[in-house]
Specification:
The protein is mainly α. The protein has a single domain, classed as MFS general substrate transporter like domains (Growth Hormone, Chain: A, Up-down Bundle). It contains 18 helices and no strands. The N terminus is likely disordered. Keywords: Membrane, Transmembrane, Transmembrane helix.
């Protein structure tokens, strides 16, 4: 029978304040580097490369590449998490994933056909999710439950910081794709070297470390067993719907700016992205910190998660009512506020409903299916909506509806307030 009680993982002897701050800082750097790759490459460089290769079919081609590559992300994240749990180590997976991503990005920058672009992005998604699975597991490994809202907020700043840096770098290198891809590979490799160089793995002991090998069928059953837990399952559903609504729109923002929004004279879509992204990310940083700190202080997670998901759904109406540059600025700010608070507090909520502490990386990897899985569906959904329903207005409405349903999915969670 599934239990709703969460036993914290054995936390190593409390480090000194300076060392604890150092770990949080390097986790912020590691997550920022990851988000720089996802946002800079995924939102600017990849769409630019696709548009140059297949200008007439860019929406459909980007949808196929994004969808297929996300299958690799969905598979590799939890598998790498389970292997990381089994090995009892995080650093080899962090460093190996980062260096393999550098190689994948170098390959991606050298190709000139849609097929090879798709293969390259699949390689990058697979290797970056190996890196992500191990980095994600460090918070439940080393941070006590009472401090996870704050820790998740600090780590969550990786999205606004990394997203802003990533889009700014990408907008400056969009006309020099090979250089841009190499810069992003170097960013994630350096972040991994810093984290693994300054913080060695803490030896893990106990039943999980000493257990004999498990048959593949039993591993697959155990891999999905976390979804049998009532609260974890609803957290998974809420995250999946929110991410699906968000990426259905954000993944096509470069094309939205070029084909749907009336931009001021002389402002190109990549340049517009370089303005909108900092606006969104500053708002996201503010709501990430405030949401994490206040959720710790008030010991309440669900209200922050539910309200922020609902807000994310409602703000999708802004570009529908006002498909202008001003409308996009307002939309970006409000969407950043909503998504930042959601991701920070929802991450803390999930760490409190993990079924088994010794399987933290594996179960966080399962949760990351709710991040990567919807990205499989999002490009196909977005492409179908845009082509079948006649433009980007229906896309905003579909994205908003998904986020609102995601807000409702938080209500059934019982073990966390």
């Amino acid at each position: 029978m599934a239990t709703h009680e969460v036993v914290d993982p054995p936390v190593p002897p409390a480090p000194g304040p300076a060392r604890h701050r150092g770990l949080m800082l390097l986790l912020l750097v590691a997550n920022s580097a990851m988000m720089a790759v996802y946002m800079g490459v995924g939102s600017v460089l990849l769409p630019t490369q696709v548009a140059s290769i297949a200008p007439a079919d860019k929406v459909a081609v980007l949808g196929v590449i994004g969808g297929v590559s996300s299958i690799f992300a969905t598979a590799f994240n939890p598998i790498a998490g389970a292997l990381s749990d089994r090995s009892g180590r995080r650093n080899p997976w962090i460093l190996g994933g980062a260096l393999a991503s550098l190689a994948g990005l170098a390959f991606l920058g050298s190709v000139t056909t849609a097929l090879l672009v798709g293969i390259g992005w699949c390689l990058v998604q697979a290797t970056m999710n190996i890196y992500q699975a191990a980095v994600t597991a460090i918070v439940p490994d080393r941070v006590p439950a009472a401090r996870r809202g704050t820790a998740s907020a600090l780590v969550g700043l990786g999205l606004p910081i990394g997203g802003t840096v990533g889009v700014l770098v990408a907008s400056q290198t969009a006309e020099h794709l090979r250089t841009g891809y190499l810069v992003f590979g170097a960013i994630v490799a350096v972040a991994a070297l810093l984290l693994t160089g300054f913080f060695r793995d803490t030896p893990r002991s106990g039943p999980a470390a000493d257990a004999p090998p498990v048959p593949v069928r039993a591993q697959l059953a155990a891999f999905l067993s976390s979804l049998a837990n009532h609260d974890f399952r609803w957290a998974f559903i809420g995250r999946a719907l929110m991410v699906l609504g968000y990426f259905s729109v954000v993944g096509y923002q470069l094309y939205i700016l070029g084909d749907h929004i009336a931009l001021p004279a002389g402002l190109t879509p990549p340049a517009a992205m370089a303005v909108l992204t900092p606006v969104s990310m500053v708002a996201m940083a503010v709501s990430t910190v405030l949401g994490g700190l206040l959720s710790d202080r008030w010991n309440r997670r669900k209200v922050f998660v539910g309200v922020s998901a609902a807000l994310a759904g409602l703000v999708m109406v802004v570009p529908v009512v006002s498909p202008t540059w001003t409308g996009m600025l307002v939309f970006s700010a409000l969407n950043g506020l909503a998504f930042g608070c959601f991701m920070a507090v929802d991450t803390a909520l999930v760490t409190l409903v993990l079924p088994r502490a010794e399987d933290a990386a594996r179960d966080m990897g399962v949760l990351n299916i709710a991040n990567a899985g919807p990205q499989i569906i999002a490009p196909f959904v977005a492409s179908a909506v845009v082509t079948a329903l006649g433009g980007y207005t229906p896309l905003f409405l579909v994205g908003g509806a998904l986020s609102l349903i995601g807000a409702l999915a938080i209500l059934p969670i019982r073990s966390v307030r």
